[in-house]
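ok so for the tutorial part 2 we go from a plain amino acid sequence to predicted structure tokens. step 1 is just haveing the sequence, like this:
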Amino acid sequence: MVGIVTGGILAGLALGMLGAGGTIIGLPMLLYLGGPSGHAAFGTNAFGVSIVALALLFWRMSARQIDVLLGIAFTLPGLAGIALGARLGLLYPASRLILLLSFLILIVAGWIYYLSTQAPAAGPAGRAAVDLRRIARVAPAAFIVGLISGFFAIGGGFLVVPALALTAAIDLRSSARSSLLPIAAFAALGAAEYALAGDVRYRAGIVMIAAGLAGGALGIALGDRLPLPIIQRLFAVFLAALAAYMMAQHV
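step 2 — the prediction. this is what the tokens look like for a chain of 251 residues:
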């Protein structure tokens, strides 16, 4: 139970502050602090994060902070990648998935820290017109992000945010907010694939959702006030430590 509550709070906190990191933080908490094990940990985590991300998405939409059209343009091709990736992930042993995920988390930690040292703007802030040229840039990146997200049954926000910012030419903070739409969709489809295989524990998921909503509310409040580079660096250090612990458990 400790792992489920802790995972929910930290997942919601990350989604609220960064629009990313919910599933990648929640999963180790379930695995190492008491929660479902094996593939059930992946499926339950994806289920809980998808609902928390959806709630935060509606919160941001009510404040008119989400570019819905851009989010949809990233989500649709990403879902095709999710469908394929989730099926491949279910065929892969859970222990090996965890080890591969730890390496991915370490790479992501380095990438996020690098982003924190760069100029804050990857493009103009705010909304960007969604035209065929922009969709042509966004779609391939979205499919690849979806494929990786489906394989690990994660929302993939740590990949969605920089990919959306770069391909759509918007700033990272705007990307982090709009990323909640594809994250919710990606995690939901990944959870559905695991649910069909009987690998979602719904009672644990409900507890995780309740904790995640509390963490998400705090994350939004902090994320709107703290400088983005500081948040990114703290998140990167936490992820690096988490990856090192996961590797030590499985190497």
